[in-house]
Design a protein that fits this description.
Length: 214
């Protein structure tokens, strides 16, 4: 049982919550239409699925540009600066500490939204995985124009990289769904991303809890 004194802190602005849910919806929709294009199942039909996938992909690219602009202009980029300080402790917490009721080694705060493991993960997604998906998606979309631009690539290779990136994003999404259940309560992190307010241990409260920051 968690006996710590909890306090409410405002972590997520309206735009942050908007882009979080919008991006999640787009990733799910892109996965559904993308896997259909690759022949995994039939839902919309190939032509319609391809059109919807392209439209959603363009929408995601526009949203991504706004997200990057917002992070740079508001200073939120500081929450994504990678660090290895307490990284081992965080990995240990999720590997076994959480099951023993240990307190999270890196509590959340207004100035420290993400722990070291999150910072590395989110940064990798933002600067590697998403750009790769956008680039390969655009190459796929502009395939008929390759000769005009002197692009000499293998379409199958581009498609393979794009598909591997899709699997990586789906894997991240599944892992993210699990991590949101690891707060002070089963739905604590989910509520925070809906309202902006997170309940966290008050300063000086050290009694172990069942969960921790996702």
């Amino acid at each position: 049982m968690d006996t710590r004194t909890m306090e409410r802190i405002y972590l997520y602005s309206r735009f942050e919550r908007f882009w979080h849910w919008a991006q999640a919806a787009l990733i799910v929709f892109l996965a559904v239409t993308g896997f259909e294009v690759h022949g995994t199942y039939r839902l919309f039909g190939f032509q319609k699925a391809a059109e919807l996938h392209n439209t959603a992909g363009m929408g995601w690219f526009v949203l991504y540009v706004f997200i990057i602009f917002w992070k740079l202009t508001t200073g939120e980029w500081k929450n994504y600066v990678p660090t290895t300080r307490k990284l081992a402790a965080v990995v240990g917490y999720y590997a076994y500490g959480i099951f023993r009721g240990d307190a999270h080694p890196v509590p959340r705060s207004e100035r420290n939204k993400h722990n070291p493991l999150q910072r590395l993960t989110y940064l990798g997604i933002a600067v590697v995985l998403i750009p790769v998906q956008v680039t390969t998606g655009l190459l796929y979309y502009l395939y008929n124009s390759w000769p005009r631009y002197g692009i000499q690539l293998s379409l199958s290779s581009v498609a393979t990289v794009h598909m591997l990136g899709a699997f990586a994003l789906v894997a991240f999404l599944v892992g993210h769904l699990y991590m949101i259940t690891t707060g002070h309560s089963l739905t604590g992190h989910l509520k925070a991303m809906c309202t902006g307010w997170e309940e966290a241990p008050a300063n000086g409260s050290q009694t172990p809890s069942v969960g921790g920051a996702a």
